[in-house]
Amino acid sequence: MKEITNNEMLFVLRVFKSPEVEYNANSMAKHLGMSAMGALKIAKRLEKENILTSRTLGKATFYRLDFSNEYVKQYLRFLLKREVEHAHPYVKRWITEIRKVKAADVSILFGSVLKKYKEARDIDVLFITDKKRFPRLKREVEEINSMNIKKIHPVYQTKEDLEKNIKERDKVILGAVKGIIIFGEDVIITLY
118 and 148 share a domain? Predict the structure, then answer.
């Protein structure tokens, strides 16, 4: 594969983090702030590289990630880790705090902290765990909260809850999965 551009990375992440939406070149162009022709060129290139698949409905062509291609999963892992590495310094401070959690399979930082940074009132985090480890996870979050002025506002889910809530288009969960995946990207990738 040729070297990937920033807009191509944003395109792939947008498609991945929005399982409830089907994007065509026009809708993606609006989200990325680029021309429809530019978005179409990106989509065609990613399709040629077997990262995206397409389906035509009327005159519109909609794009999805091609999860049958193992390379797509590796590529997503790379992009998700890159997203963490390039986060705002204030966000990185919270990433460090949240990485202390050991009783969760996944943590996703989302909400106002990703846009307002220090101005955010609390720190929204989606944790995915199982019922057995839930009490320990709760204690870990309480311990982090006891040492910080701003508090983590946790949203707890099991893998089954997450799958169900994505299918049911739960607004909070769909908003959360658009955040920064701190750890557990493989779990999220396998859900798709």
Answer: yes
Are both 20 and 104 inside the same structural domain?
Answer: no
- Whether residues 27 and 40 fall in one domain: yes
Residue type, position 39, single letter:
A
CA of 29: how far to CAs of 39, 121, 139, 186, in Å? 5, 32, 43, 28
Backbone angles phi, psi at 3, to 5 degrees: -65, 140
Residue entry with tokens 């930082």 = 109
Per-residue pLDDT tens over the stretch 134-152: 999 999 999 999 999 999 9
CATH of the domain at 116: 3.30.460
CATH code at position 3: 1.10.10.10
Q: What is the span of the domain harbouring residue 138?
A: 87-191
Specify whether 64 is located in the same domain as 13.
yes
Say if residue 21 is in the same domain as residue 111. Answer: no
- Per-residue model confidence as pLDDT tens for the chain (192 residues): 556 788 888 999 999 999 888 899 999 999 889 999 999 999 999 999 889 999 998 888 999 998 888 889 999 999 999 999 999 999 999 999 999 999 999 999 999 999 999 999 999 999 999 999 999 999 999 999 999 999 999 999 999 999 999 889 899 999 999 999 999 999 998 877
Q: How many CA atoms lie within 13 A of 62 on its CB side?
A: 10
Euclidean distance between CA atoms 11 and 184, whole angstroms: 21
